[in-house]
Every structure is written in C-alpha cells, then in structure tokens.
Design a protein that fits this description.
This is inorganic diphosphatase. This protein is of the alpha+beta class. Helix content is 35%, strand content 16%.
Length: 107
C-alpha cells in the first residue's frame, strides 16, 4: 500500500498497522476485493499467503530487495537463466541506472 505524500493523512501512516488504526476496515475491504474480483468472470476466488494478513513495511522491503537482487544477477548473467530466455527489448535497468535491453520469457 502507499499513500501520496501530499495527502493530509500521509503523516498518520508509516506501517500497515497504522492503516487499520486510522482507517478501520480498509485492509479488509482491499483484501476482499483482491480475493473476489475475478469471480464475476467465472474464475475462483484468489487465495493469499501469510495467513491472510497484510505484511509489514520491513517484510515488504525485504522481499523487494531480495527480488531485485535476484533480477540483477539474472540480467547481468551472474547466474544461469535456466529455463528463461533473455531476449532483448528496451527497458530501463535498475542495475546500472542506464538503459539496457532485457525481457524474460519462459521457453
């Protein structure tokens, strides 16, 4: 979740527990929407990990950091792509802060 820094409520929220404290019911409504939004198309409800609880800021930042590090190793070829095929397309690289060409496709 995020709150725009120019929102008057931004100073109230620094982690996920603050959302429920200051905006009761918001997390439940968001979780329910993400669980059910595919149902009208005949698809099953989504399921969530973490015991259906929203993760803390620290947990989310850890996952983002680990994922980015793995991506950086892949696109710099520090690790084998395995079943992935690295085809070149134009995207901004977060590794070297310059434009590089990478796209991931499963074979």
């Amino acid at each position: 979740m995020e709150v725009a820094t120019d929102d008057p409520s931004a100073s109230l929220v620094s982690d996920i527990d603050d959302v429920e404290k200051h905006f009761p019911g918001t997390l439940t409504a968001i979780r329910d929407w993400f669980r059910d939004y595919k149902i009208p198309d005949g698809k099953p409800a989504n399921k969530f990990g973490l015991g259906n609880k929203a993760a803390s800021k620290d947990y989310a930042l850890k996952v983002i950091t680990e994922t980015n590090e793995s991506w950086a190793k892949l696109v710099t070829r520090s690790i084998s792509p395995g079943e992935l095929s690295l085809l070149y397309v134009f995207v901004a690289s977060l590794v070297r802060r310059k434009k590089q060409k990478f796209c991931l496709f499963y074979r």
